Amino acid sequence: MSSNDNRVLISGGGPVGLLCAWILGQRGIAVRLFDNNDGLQSDPRAATTHPATLDLLAASGLADDMARVGLVAPIFQFWDRPANRLVAEFDHAVLAKDTQHPFVVQCEQFKTSQLLLDRVLTLPNVEVLFNHEVADVRQSADSVSVDVNGPEGVRTHSGVYLIGADGGRSIVRKRSDIPFEGFTWPERFIVLTTPFDFESNRGYSYRSYFAEPGSWCNCFKVSADGPPGLWRTVFPTEQSQTDEALMSDAGVQGRMHRFFPDQRPYEIVHRNLYVTHQRVATTFRKGRVLLAGDAAHVNNPIGGMGLNGGIQDAVNLAGKLIEVMLEGRSDQLLDLYDLQRRTVAVEFVQEQSIANKKRLEESDPAMRQKNLDELSRIADDPQRARQFLLRTAMIASQKRADSMALN
Fold first, then answer.
1. Three-class SS state of 127
2. Which of 74, 120, 225, 305 has the fewest C-beta atoms lying within 10 Å of its C-beta?
3. Model confidence over 213-255: pLDDT tens digits?
């Protein structure tokens, strides 16, 4: 194994941290990854993987494996919920000349993490240490060190670079004094998961978005443990309601039946309530500390851009670290990582996810109708649909990042 001076430290064992470890480890770079959990987390999180992200993962076989354990979803829909009317349907097939993957793959985050961990564990130069939590960060001109709480107490580990992929509450970001600018949505979001088959019973696609004045719903299917799969519904909540009221059987059934009336009660196999932020770190690089994924940027889930942005961060960052560490490139290349990925986070992910939410919850009748009519016109025009999908599929943002260079 390489010496400490040539080791990359990673905080965070989710898909972003594991992907960095996999890419770096394949090239022989020593990696030590710390995660505060006792293993991979299986709680339902992000699932949508966009064409631009799948393209980045194709060479490693990950894209194919994700499709194998997930669901391929070429179509998504917008619905007017009060009118129960399909407003627009978009088919990624119009992107056949723009991407190797003219579809989305619905692969739960924990499955992606498991696919990556299986690969990482085959590499002798990569260590994965669960039950190890980074507590403090220090760096000098030529090294970085972290204090880590583990089963044997606090120990210090040193390396040449540190990647903070430890989520929205990132200790790496906080201990490196990097501000996390933005705001928190006043309403919390609730996720309700059910085996009810919205496709056969309602005609919904695997990804469907429902607009309602002052509200909205995301409804999408995941494969779960296999057929018939599960459907996740995501709603905003009212600020005045207590956790107990929101999460109670009566509250859950009331919400589901108001949006999707049915004569039978819904079987709910999972429910979760969480706070959502729109924030971006002021820099993704501070010396030898680099941020990626939710540690660098967080956003609301409408459009499924958060995890995709993190995976794209990982590929970009790991590739540049390889050029610096193995090919003699100046570490100024890491400033380009910051420029490219932070620009995407601000100009595309934040802007698009906020616009998605506002469009679905628009309350002004005239503006609401204008938004829905425009979606319908876009979907009916192949050229406009392609331009729309280039943005939602995150192909446009990848092109924007690739076009950027340091002055």
1. strand
2. 225
3. 999 999 999 999 988 999 999 999 999 999 999 999 999 999 9
Q: Which two tokens stand for residue 246?
A: 């929101």
Closest of 312, 403, 300, 288 to residue 352, by C-alpha: 300
Phi/psi at 381 (5° precision): -110, 110
- The Cα–Cα gap between 243 and 233 comes to 18
Contact 219, 233 (CB under 8 A): yes
- The reported pLDDT for the residue numbered 343 is 97
- The domain segmentation of the chain, as residue ranges, is 4-183+277-402
Handedness of CA 355, 360, 364, 365 (dihedral sign): positive
List Cβ neighbours of 270 (8 Å cut-off, separation of 6 or more): 44, 191, 192, 193
Element (H, E) at 336: helix 333-344
All residues at 6 or more sequence positions from 197 whose CB lies less than 8 Å from its CB, including other chains: 228, 231
pTM for this one? Answer: 0.96
- Rounded Cα–Cα distance for residues 104 and 53 (Å): 9
Sign of torsion, CA 325 316 26 30?
positive
> Has domain 4-183+277-402 been given CATH number 2.40.50.140?
no
Beta 189-194 vs 270-274: how paired, if at all?
antiparallel
CB pairs under 8 A, 24+ apart, for 37-41?
A: 37/13, 37/130, 37/131, 38/130, 38/131, 39/130, 40/13, 40/110, 40/113, 40/114, 40/117, 41/14, 41/110, 41/113
Counting residues of the chain whose pLDDT is more than 90, the rounded percentage is 96
**CA gap 356, 224 in Å, rounded:** 26
Cα–Cα distances (Å) from 396 to 207, 344, 392, in that order, read 21, 10, 8
